[in-house]
Amino acid sequence: MAGHYDQLSVFTGNSNPALAQEICDYVGIPLGRAEVFKFSNDNTFVRIQESVRENDVFVVQSFSNPINDAIMEMLIMIDTMKRASAGRVTAVIPYFGYGRTDKKDQPRVPITARLVAKLVGVSGADRALLLDLHAGQIQGFFDVPVDEMSAMSLTASYFAHKRLTAPVVVSPDLGNTKRARNFAEIVDAPLAIIEKRRVGNDDRSQVLNLIGSVAGMQAIIVDDEIDTAGSITQAAQVVLEAGAKEVYASAIHPVLSGPAVERLQASPIREVVVTNSIAVPEEKRIEKLTVLSVAALLGETIQRIHTGASVSATYRTQESMVAM
Does residue 104 carry a catalytic annotation? Predict the structure, then answer.
């Protein structure tokens, strides 16, 4: 039963249409038809090409490069859905760009994550579905109900099935310790932590200490995203110098900006496991990069939101699918 909403509809902008199609394949519905493009004056235009009146509409859009275009497409699509009399509109944001600007850590700087969250609500979204936020408090920046899901069980289960003989999970910084600890529990491995401090606003950091032992072990460096790959490749070098015999890396969001691909290719990391929360173009799909799909996780969650079922039960469903 779908409550007082009519049929389920899924639409997408231009940031990650392949993921949206995979979600629709999982749910068993066609992808909604819409035109989303720019005029010659750089204005974004949206036209929905089918009726959404009283429908339960989910708009899938990753806030990835070009990030400002992706955000505007989402906002305009939501506004268009509401003006077309959609019954309910949920913003599905597999990757929430600007998530790292979640607090004032310097004088006279913005909290852009809060601004973007507010814009999603102001555009007319009734709720939001997010995936592995950089910081949990971003949920509170939204003025609408938020479901935050995690693909960590997906990436951790991948490594659990590899059956490494002597794994150790490594957090590349103190702020990521909780995520790495949860990953370590799934993999059944000890935890090590790299203590470092960031230098300025660029991608430079200084390693202060390695907490825990990695000697003779297979290190899995766990983070929420890989941006320029500076932190994760530096962490790989640290654990190798501390005696690790192999290094792997795992992250949810493959931002892969600037020199990231070149750094990963040249690094001693044997395999980099990410998800398709952000579309990875073919030119960035190097041999050591493994991309797992979050379509089933998001598709199952969308179905449960639509029918009013428990969203937390999604994880039990996913775990049973992974175990098969």
Answer: no
